[in-house]
């Protein structure tokens, strides 16, 4: 499937808009209350993520991609970087991890999922 350049630009705009909205809410809350608790900040982030995922689902449906979420995007981003040979330190920094071990565990969990999926294909004799 070939994606329309205009559609891609709109998707990027939507992503930037929701990220900016999240930051504005956090900054406004900090201004209003002088201090935002960790719980308040987490609630804002969860709210924006939920609304972003809702819109990503609509976009995914429009372009024929099921399961389009912020989690799927983050997973895909990290996987593509790793398979392209990117430095683990770069991947770690771009994901916002505080140490390399977190990133190594994060990427290892994807590899484990992939191995399970491939093993299931090898043992699925019904489709032959």
What's this entry about, in short?
This protein folds into two domains: 1-66, no CATH class; 69-128, no CATH class. The protein is 79% helix and 0% strand.
Would you mind describing this structure in some detail?
The chain is mostly helical. The chain has 2 domains: 1-66, no CATH class; 69-128, no CATH class. The protein is built from 5 helices and no strands. The chain has helices spanning 5-33, 38-63, 70-83, 88-95, 100-123. The protein is globular.
**Uncertain residue segments:** none
Number of E-type strands = 0
Order of helices and strands: HHHHH
β-sheet strand percentage? under 5%
Question: Radius of gyration in whole Å, from Cα?
Answer: 18 Å
Helix fraction by DSSP (H/I, runs of at least 4): over 70%
Distance between the termini: 27 Å
Please identify the structural class as seen in this structure. mainly alpha
Q: Can you tell me the number of structural domains?
A: 2
Helix run count? 5
């Amino acid at each position: 499937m070939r994606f329309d350049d205009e559609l891609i630009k709109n998707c990027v705009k939507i992503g930037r808009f929701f990220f900016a909205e999240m930051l504005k809410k956090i900054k406004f809350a900090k201004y209003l209350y002088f201090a935002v608790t960790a719980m308040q900040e987490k609630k804002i982030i969860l709210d924006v993520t939920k609304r972003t995922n809702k819109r990503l689902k609509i976009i995914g449906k429009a372009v024929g991609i099921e399961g389009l979420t912020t989690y799927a995007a983050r997973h895909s981003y990290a996987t593509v970087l790793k398979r392209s040979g990117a430095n683990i330190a770069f991947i770690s920094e771009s994901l916002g991890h505080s140490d390399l071990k977190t990133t190594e565990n994060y990427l290892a969990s994807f590899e484990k999922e992939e191995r399970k999926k491939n093993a299931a294909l090898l043992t699925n004799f019904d489709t032959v």
